[in-house]
Amino acid sequence: MRYLPNSDQERRQMLQACGLSSLEDLFAHLPPEVRLARPLALPPGKSEYEILDYFRSRGEECANGYASFLGAGAYRHYRPVLVDVVASRGEFLTAYTPYQSEISQGILTSIFEFQTMICQLTGMEAANASMYCGSTATAEAALMAARITGRSRILAARSLHPEYRQVLATMLRNLEMPIEEIAYDPASGQTDLEDLDQKLDERTAAVILQSPSFFGIVEELDRAADLTHRKGALLIHVFTEAVALGLLEPAREADIVAGELQSFATPPSFGGPYAGVIATKEKHVRQMPGRLVGETKDVQGNRAYCLTLSTREQHIRREKATSNICTNQALVALMATVFMTVYGKQGLRELARQNLSKAHYLASRVPPRFSGPFFNEFVAAPRGRSPEQINQELLARKIIGGLPLRPYYPELDGSMLLCATEMNRRAEMDTLAEVFGQ
């Protein structure tokens, strides 16, 4: 019944309860000039069949039936059927924020399991379940580092996702927190650690490195951590491709991990929804934004869950809140939890291996521009034609190509970012290589 409009009889009953005789009486207190005297400019209602047909058509616009080699922060992975079976249940699907949280034991249980799995993946000791997306989580991690260190200067790798850098700049612009870029090595694509060492000083609160980077390159986080910690700053490890965590060694040397979980069962659908996450060492947990669910016992001695830490404005005074933008993405986090549960430790590792193998097969046919180690995406430079021309030819063969890098990295004009996941077949990669080689 929740999707059905009120009947005429129900409307009359509500008006009668308000002491009114018509719907117009309900708005009689408004001045005539602010009232709309015509029907809304909306098309007529559609039948259920027409609605389904409409959304199928929109789905085809989302590259249904096309192979895709487009990554750059939004990745195409297989979604187990069980994800929607669980996430579509009414008790989860309709939940936003459990303000009377202890009543919502099922939701708290799923959040607790989510936090546990994220800690296992990232090598951290505590994780939250209340970030909007990876870009805002990165900015929140920078603010968190500033609170911990009492410093204000941020160093961010140029190979950090360009949109993450834009969000970071927007959030810190009016907080007197300067941001400086760390260069990348033009040969390997890895962050230039000599440049990092030169720019580090006693004012630096945090160093932000993405690994795998926007170029798909795996960074030397252990060396970066040593340099960062010598100056008393914190290292923030950012990830956009969560599947990489199934194979790469957890960044235990980092102080804060911020990332995006879209890869875990959320399809790239018109740009969302996404779900960010922040994980950290236990000693920093009170400066972590969002919500933290803990395990306890009820009065009868049974296992129970409760909000152990809630630093949002909705829960505490504004001046004590660590953030005013962190929101609840419990449904998307639940999808990620089911995804991780279905795959398990060995399954996630095998999934990551498949991504690695597919990307390296493609790289054997389309040589990468950088020499550094990469996971499932890399930068390539077609010869004699622009990335846009390559993509047009690929579209004619029902293949979505890579991302041209010129708008984000002018120095990489003529290059494009290619991604291969377990969803790509060898024949598709061979076709892409053929178009590149023409």
Question: What's the gist of this structure?
Answer:
The protein is built from 13 helices and 14 strands. It is α/β, with parallel strands linked by helices and 438 residues long. It is globular.
Describe this structure in words.
The strands form 4 sheets. The protein has a 7-stranded mixed sheet, sandwiched between helices. The chain is globular and about 75 Å long. With 438 residues, the chain is of the alpha/beta class. The chain is 36% helix and 14% strand. Helix 11 crosses helix 13 (426-437). It is built from 13 helices and 14 strands. It has helices at residues 8-17, 23-26, 48-61, 81-87, 90-93, 105-122, 134-149, 162-172, 193-199, 221-230, 330-365, 387-396, 426-437; strands spanning 67-68, 126-127, 153-157, 179-182, 204-210, 234-239, 256-260, 276-280, 291-297, 303-310, 377-380, 399-400, 403-404, 416-419. The protein folds into 2 domains: 66-79 and 344-437, Aspartate Aminotransferase, domain 1 (Alpha-Beta Complex), CATH 3.90.1150; 82-339, Aspartate Aminotransferase, domain 2.
User: Which strand order spans the largest sheet, edge to edge or round the barrel?
Assistant: 2-8-7-6-5-3-4
Terminal Cα span: 58 Å
**Largest sheet report:** 7 strands, mixed
Query: What percent of residues are in strands?
Result: 5-15%
| Mean pLDDT reading | 91
Radius of gyration: 25 Å
CATH class identity of the largest domain? Alpha Beta
The tally of strands reads 14
Element-level helix/strand string? HHHEHHHEHEHEHEHEEEEEHEHEEEH
Which residues sit in consecutive blocks of at least 5 with pLDDT less than 50?
A: none
Please bin the fraction of helical residues: 25-40%
Class inferred from helices and paired strands: alpha/beta
As for the CATH topology of the largest domain, it is Aspartate Aminotransferase, domain 2
**How many domains make up the 3D coordinates?**
2
What is the CATH architecture descriptor of the largest domain?
3-Layer(aba) Sandwich
Shape: globular
Q: Any idea what the CATH superfamily of the largest domain is called?
A: Type I PLP-dependent aspartate aminotransferase-like (Major domain)
- Figure out the total of helices: 13
